[in-house]
Amino acid sequence: MPGPQELIVILIIVLVLFGAKKLPELARGLGQGIREFKKAASASDEPEKIEPPKQQAQANQPN
Questions:
Q1: How far lies 8's CA from each of 14, 35, 41, in Å?
Q2: Cα separation of 24 and 17, whole Å?
Q3: Each residue of 8-36: pLDDT tens digit?
Q4: pTM above the 0.70 mark?
Q5: Contact 23/15 with Cβ under 8 angstroms?
Q6: 3-state SS string over 17-59?
Q7: How far is the CA of 20 from the CAs of 11, 12, 14, 54, 61, in angstroms?
Q8: Distance between CA atoms of 43 and 7, rounded to whole angstroms?
């Protein structure tokens, strides 16, 4: 985990590269990306429903 000095250096580099006007757009894009990643990760954690084959289900029913 970067410390406060490293974060300040990274922020200064980002300011120099992109300028102060583009920072809100970059932050918005980063937030949307993180939100979509979390949504996709939670969707893949849900177990898939497995239905038994129809032939076995019919064979198990009493006549």
A1: 10, 25, 30
A2: 14
A3: 999 899 889 988 888 889 889 999 999 99
A4: no
A5: yes
A6: HHCCCCHHHHHHHHHHHHHHHHHHHHHHHCCCCCCCCHHHHHH
A7: 11, 10, 9, 62, 70
A8: 32
